[in-house]
């Protein structure tokens, strides 16, 4: 199968304009249903796969997202590089609403989400010190001339469960930890991408200053949506620039072999049912 570039759209990004040869593909997975049908097509000649993370019509809360089904689906459809688009709150004065942040680190404060594809007879401990694909992130940064707003080359994204926004005490605590942006969806998405040997990078769209900022009104859905609309268009332009210049083959040495080099289990001892469930991942490095 021809390798594809995936895009998972967050709040405000429910479709991928500019695609040709558009098809809707429903994928059934051993982990249940993905957020919606996948949209496949071509952009600048490249095979693309798009999924709206919250479903068309925005029906799925962050903690309700079936992250494993989504990532399994992308892997099944041949996605090797996945760009995550996510609305976030800014935790620093220097990241104004309207700015884009190419996060390079995460702090995971989610508590009730399934964090792994593995278990049930297979043990894998992937490295996660660098949770974002450095090659995809730097290529996105190189495409920043396509947008009319500052693009921050790095940042730490703290992920909370939500769906409520933070209290002021929480917001101030997170600021004391030095985080740059706050969101609800990139964990465990980025972990599962690494486990599936998919390159993953995030475009975080700063929509507001969360509630720590004294001179700003506390975050409201209305304010978020206003900035979001402009930001989503910027994210689309950045992705377009990335796709235009992306090399045909991914080049990073980190993500493409992350699971196979971290496998602790004897392949002969892995239960058949487990192998079958993980077939889109395992088939690249063991007989399944
Ligand atoms: Zn990579």
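Q: What amino acid sequence fits the structure above?
A:
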């Amino acid at each position: 199968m021809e390798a594809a570039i995936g895009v998972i759209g967050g709040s405000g990004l429910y479709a991928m304009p500019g695609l040709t040869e558009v098809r809707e593909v429903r994928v059934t997975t051993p982990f249940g249903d993905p957020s919606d049908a996948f949209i496949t097509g071509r952009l600048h000649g490249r095979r693309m796969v798009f999924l709206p993370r919250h479903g068309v019509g925005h029906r799925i809360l962050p903690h309700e997202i079936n992250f494993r089904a989504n990532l399994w689906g992308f892997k099944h459809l041949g996605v090797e590089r996945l760009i995550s688009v996510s609305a976030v709150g800014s935790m620093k004065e220097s990241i104004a609403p309207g700015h884009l942040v190419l996060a390079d680190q995460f702090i995971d404060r989610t508590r009730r989400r399934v964090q792994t594809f593995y278990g049930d007879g297979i043990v894998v401990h992937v490295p996660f010190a660098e949770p974002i694909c450095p090659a995809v992130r730097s290529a996105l940064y190189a495409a920043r001339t396509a947008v009319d707003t500052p693009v921050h080359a790095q940042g730490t994204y703290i992920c909370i469960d939500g769906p409520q926004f933070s209290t002021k005490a929480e917001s101030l605590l997170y600021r004391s930890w030095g985080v740059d942006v706050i969101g609800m969806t990139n964990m465990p998405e980025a972990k599962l991408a690494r486990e599936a040997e998919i390159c993953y990078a995030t475009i975080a769209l700063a929509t507001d200053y969360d509630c720590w900022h004294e001179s700003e009104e506390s975050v409201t859905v209305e304010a978020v949506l206003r900035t979001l609309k402009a930001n989503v268009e910027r994210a689309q332009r950045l992705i377009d620039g990335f796709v235009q210049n992306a090399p045909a083959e991914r080049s990073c040495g980190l993500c493409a072999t992350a699971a196979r080099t971290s496998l602790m289990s004897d392949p002969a001892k892995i239960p058949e049912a487990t192998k079958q469930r993980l077939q889109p991942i395992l088939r690249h490095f063991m007989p399944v």
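Q: And what stands out in the fold?
A: The domain at 4-282 is CATH 3.40.50.1580 (Rossmann fold).
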